[in-house]
UniProtKB/TrEMBL annotation:
One of its GO terms (molecular function) is proton transmembrane transporter activity. F-type ATPases have 2 components, CF(1) - the catalytic core - and CF(0) - the membrane proton channel. This is ATP synthase complex subunit 8. It holds the Pfam family ATP-synt_8. The chain crosses the membrane at residues 7-31. GO terms for cellular component: mitochondrial membrane; proton-transporting ATP synthase complex. Belongs to the ATPase protein 8 family. The keyword Hydrolase does not apply. It comes from the Eukaryota. It is a single-pass membrane protein.
Length: 52
């Protein structure tokens, strides 16, 4: 059984690392989250009555 040279292991590592990075980048940027439609909501504030 022939053994692989270390340079081949290095090129395989670089190749699979680049494939992993490209796969992750593509999956990250292809994801489109559902953005809720912007509606006008009024914010009601209740006044605080401190008893001290």
């Amino acid at each position: 059984m022939p053994q692989m040279a270390p340079i081949s292991w290095l090129t395989l590592f670089i190749l699979f690392s680049m494939i992993l990075l490209i796969f992750n980048f593509v999956n990250y940027f292809i994801f489109l989250p559902n953005t809720p439609e912007l509606t006008q909501k009024t914010i009601t504030q209740t006044p605080f009555n401190w008893k001290w």
